[in-house]
Amino acid sequence: MPSAVISRDNRASLGALLVRWCGALLVAALMVTGFQPSAKASNEVSLTLTPSAVSAGPGETLLTSVTVTNEGTEEIPPGEVTITAPSGVLNTLSDVDQWYSSSDTEQTGRFLATFDVPAVAAGAKVIVSAELPLASGRFGSLWGPRGLAADYQVSGVSTASARSSFVWTAGTAPSPAAMTTILALVPPADSAGVLSTQKLVELTSPSGVLTRQLQLAQGRSVTLGVDPRIIASIAAVGDTIPESVQLWLNQLKALPNESFLLPYANADISAQAQAGSPTLLAPITTDISAIAAVSTSSATPAPTPGVSEVTSVAFAPRLSSLAWPAGGTVSGSDLGIFSANGFSQVILSSQNLAKTASTGIVSGMPAVVTNAGLSSALSHDDVSRGASYLAAAALDPAAEGAVYAGLPRSFSITGLSKTGQMLDSLAGLPWVTSGSVSTGLGSATTELTLVDSPESEERVGAVRTLLGQNAQVSSFSTIAEDPSLITSPAARDLAAVLSVSWLGDPEWGSAVAAHTASTEKLLNSVSVVTSSTINMVGGQANIPISVNNALTQAVTVVVNADPNNGRLLVNGEETITIQPESQAKARIPVQAQVGNGSAILTVTLRSIEGVPVGQPVGIPVNVRADWETWGLTAVGIAFVGLITAGVIRTLRRRKQGQSEDV
Which of 31, 178, 224, 638 could make an S-S bridge to 402, C-beta 3.0–4.6 Å? Predict the structure, then answer.
């Protein structure tokens, strides 16, 4: 219900008594129904305050709407909303930050209006609007942002509160602030190191995410951070690039916007640095082009009507060596690692700095600073808040007439549409003009102090484990003819799992688990084939050991065997080369030592450089030594000889006895 400005002095004492009496009855009713306003304030009741215009001047009326949302299971009885406003100007970016970050529910500043709110059913919301007459005496003659506060009370108990702002246009306006928005041109979170052709077609379709992101940049002061994975994936398609992909790439190259390359797959460089890695992931992509060249037909495809052919897949950004870590994730030591890995400039969030600034020098690196408040306003479609930040930037000497906003690293399609509309609204404001990242980097002179804001220990620990697994892959690859055909795809897949787009995504744990399983499979792709018991007859033998190679390229390994007891002596090892997706046999020379019995040969593989490969495999061996065979034969011969001698002796005695009888 709209209401004029109400003065507390005009409230009649009788009316006050009546209100108290009605309030007492309402409290009693609430006690019966079980609704507790104070208990609901924190989690089940929310309030939003939205001015219909981002600015207003003396004598004008500002239409304001208040939305009460009941997420609880009980109806909220009728209440009222009181709107207040401080008279002071929010004339710095820090002032606007403090205004929006305050969580107090007390009425702040000058009383503007109060209006009734009807009962709100469980799971429902109610929108109530009111006109706020703005007299010059309330806000003075200084141009700049002013705060608005709303307090929702039920039975005199504050149940929810909200804050907003508008720009008071009395007085002389400052020079416009140059606004630059930074957008990551990336696919949604994905664990694939190379996007499939089907995925590229989906992303570049008229309603695809990459298409909508590109449309967001067209005709606007937006600097693009481009994921190299997109370009590499297009190169992997070869000469038969689908129409939508070809059109998208042409449009990207034709854009006049400033651009720079993100780390491959938008990988989180802060997490890598904090995990202790001195070298950031930088997968090579030359193998992608080679694969595409082999798989593409030699026939030249017919050009798509109405679509210019892509003469080169390569994309040349206008800015280079520019790092953009996720907002609020950087620690002081990270910048040294960034610099050691080829980054000479950086985009930081104001969350990581000790004082307000739009540009500066941090640890020797020129930096532009995205304002966290303005960035949040853009991501939440809060036009009034965004307009106030821009007005404060125009007034704030620390901003030096410029302000930067970083858009989220992933969007919904709806979010992209709203963001574009909001950017157009803000760009049309008289206190806003266009800026650029290159201008900010070129004018950076003020030394800024970084405030450590590391990522969670859980995430850093997981990243450390993943990087350790990748190091194992690098060691394992030394068995291959071309190690890069193993290390490059593995690094690309890992970069995708480490994408900033995964931050805050509950599915990241599943992506990590899947990548770990894939890595283990790769590390076990060259293995000793388990064998049934081998019967060894004789003092020496060459034990056959089969080795399987599941890779698509030849590998060379050293096969070694170690017996578990003294029955066998291994006389050497063998180096063998196994062709792609096949098996080969090594023959390990062994010698019998003690006697018959069983032994276990533990067979291991390693690279020529000595890196262990796969898992040890035990092969049982039955030993029948040949010296025992000869010994038994000799004993048998001796036994036969003794028997023969005995028989001969007996026969001789009989003959002698017969002669004596005669």
Answer: 178
Q: Which DSSP string corresponds to 59-119?
A: T-EEEEEEEEEE-SSSPBPPEEEEEEE-SS---SHHHHHHHHH----S--SEEEEEEEE--
Range of the domain at 284: 177-294+316-442
Nearest one of 24, 74, 20, 90 to 391, comparing CA atoms: 90
C-alpha to C-alpha distance for 322 and 344, rounded to whole angstroms: 6
* Whole-number Å distance between alpha carbons of 268 and 251: 27
Element (H, E) at 426: helix 413-427
Q: Are strands 365-370 and 345-349 parallel, antiparallel or unpaired?
A: parallel
- pLDDT of 475 reads 96
Look at the alpha carbons of 472, 475, 477, 483 in this order and tell me if their dihedral is positive or negative.
positive
Which helix (DSSP H) or strand (DSSP E) does residue 372 occupy? helix 372-379
CATH number for the domain spanning 131: value is: 2.60.40.10
Mean pLDDT for 145-162 is 94
Using CA atoms, how far residue 342 sits from 166, 279, 327, 339, 498, in Å, is: 43, 10, 20, 5, 19
Task: Identify which of 35, 74, 44 has the alpha carbon closest to the alpha carbon of residue 155.
Answer: 35
| Cα–Cα distance, 234 to 296 (Å, whole number) | 13
Residue 57 and residue 170 in contact, taking contact as beta carbons nearer than 8 Å: yes
* Together in a domain, 32 and 51: yes
**What is the band of 352 on the pLDDT scale with cuts at 50, 70, 90?**
very high
With bands split at pLDDT 50, 70 and 90, how would you rate the model's confidence at 640? low
- Whole-number Å distance between alpha carbons of 313 and 57: 53
Q: Are residues 89 and 14 in the same domain?
A: yes
568-570 and 582-592: which strand pairing? antiparallel
DSSP letters for 341-364: TT--EEEEEGGGBSS--SEEEETT
pLDDT in tens, 356-384: 999 999 999 999 999 999 999 999 999 99
Beta pairing partners, 225: 184, 260
Taking the C-alpha atoms of residue 369 and residue 399, their distance in angstroms, rounded to an integer, is 10
pLDDT band, residue 413 (cuts 50/70/90): low
Same domain, 226 and 348: yes
Residues 270 and 415 in one domain: yes
End residue of a domain, out of 138, 168, 198? 168
> Is residue 55 domain-resident?
yes
Number of domains in the chain: 3
Do residues 227 and 354 share a domain? yes
